[in-house]
Amino acid sequence: MTSKKWDRELSAYKEARAQGIQPAGTSMRAVEESLKASETLGKAYNAETMPKATNITKETAQVMREVGM
Predict the structure, then answer these.
(1) What is the pLDDT of residues 15-43, one digit of tens each?
(2) Could you tell me which of 2, 7, 30, 53 has the fewest CB atoms within 10 Å of its CB?
(3) Taking the complete model, does pTM exceed 0.90, yes or no?
């Protein structure tokens, strides 16, 4: 991995963390998935306590709200 790509991924991870989002990893893919999940949920996504970001849909977000997650 090039240094430029590495720095870009870490920068994206840092920005996500500043928004209160906890991605599953520092890769650009993990960060982008967590940002999308956060948008769907309407709140910050946390990979440590929530289902995989790729599994967060409008339907699962509704269920998570109903159960207080």
Answers:
(1) 999 999 999 999 999 999 999 999 999 99
(2) 2
(3) no
